Amino acid sequence: MATEVSYICKRTVVSTKAVEPGRFFPLSVLDHHMEKNHIRMVYYYQTSREVEVGGVTKKLRESLSEMLTHFPIVSGRLVRDDERGHWKIKCNDAGVRMVEAKAKGSVEGWLTNLDREKELQLVHWEEMFHKPYYWSTFYVQLTEFEEGGLAIGLSCIHLLADSTCATTFMKAWADISLCNKMITPPLFHPLPPPRPRNRNPNHHPHMELIHHYKSLIEKPIALKDVRYTTISLGFSDHMVQACMSMVQPNGPITPFEALTTLFWVSLSKIKGLGNGLVDMSICLDMRKVLGLDYGFFGNCMVYNKVHVEGNKFPQVVKAISDVVTKMNSEGIMDLIEWLENNDTSSLTMMNGHDLVCASLEGVDPYLAVFQDWFKPIHVSYYVEPVLGEGQVLILPGKQGEGPLSRVAMVTLREEEAIKLCEDDVISQFSPSILMKCQ
């Protein structure tokens, strides 16, 4: 397997226009709490077999350089502020690292036999150096297939960006490549400011979110030598509708709530909990709740614990739906203000204990259409490292497969992933296996 991908070179790509000197970009409290995580994404494209290997990479390298002029935070470097020692970005045009590679066979052949270990060869990542000022926070890998096809791997530290930001980055790069114009530019501004202190004196903070973050801060992570793997399951529009009807036949719910219920109950049985449920947290994008534009660049994913009595589908989905409803602007602002008054970000690992089910339904990676009308034929997302009970990412399905179609990327201990593929409840929906256990 190791010989399927040959790495040609690693270089630094800088923007075509220099940023004004002395510019810094502060990071928010939601950014600080994601420092220990990073994101990896792989986009697959069909390309003409007539193009010589290396030709597509050269064009995309040039368009990336153009695009970086609009993303000074991406091409900057991490430094500490003098006041509290928190990270901030010095916008110094240091650039992003790009790895160029080639792979045997075609992209279609690659996708027919995909697993986690194989896919991660297509997305380069380096842990932070002991000298962070020289370390690139973003990495791009371009892998051209000898018999046609391209994979674009993007990785970044979660401290700077969440999955929505990374998707915006890819879309902006595609726009510049396709039409030399950015259709959805990034917006670099702070989270909503703290509310005036002379607000309603009878205001009682929403404590559920605060308690969850506080519990994560106070509970140390016990790192174990556990082997995790990832499987990817595709659910058609019809399958998701059937799942929604099964878990909640008498009320409106979202695809995320239905699929989270399905995986929570099934994984709890696989983990041997009998009539109980494994501890589970959900993770949601709060841009819309906070009145922020989709292009807001920074972390806006918020985690919350779900508590439920019983393990029947209607009970479970109601508990999830109730928690989603309670994650409103008041509760999020209470959390942000509490985090700003409690400097504990360096201790937090947001995915360290529970099963985490994250909704990425708001992203649309299939809009990243590059020059020569290269359209994504498959995408994968990872939020790393995965610890504790595992992780489920719910993504939109491919364009043309219906508005309710979804992809579930599930990362579990290897023996649990094998059992999940054989689970009777999930198997009744006949999801397509897009990535198998290795």
UniProtKB/TrEMBL annotation:
Pfam families the record matches: Transferase
Signal peptide range: none
Gene3D superfamilies: Chloramphenicol acetyltransferase-like domain
Lineage: superkingdom: Eukaryota
A GO MF term: acyltransferase activity, transferring groups other than amino-acyl groups
Family the UniProt entry places it in: Belongs to the plant acyltransferase family.
Name the UniProt record assigns to this protein: 3'-N-debenzoyl-2'-deoxytaxol N-benzoyltransferase
Species this protein is from: Cajanus cajan (Pigeon pea)
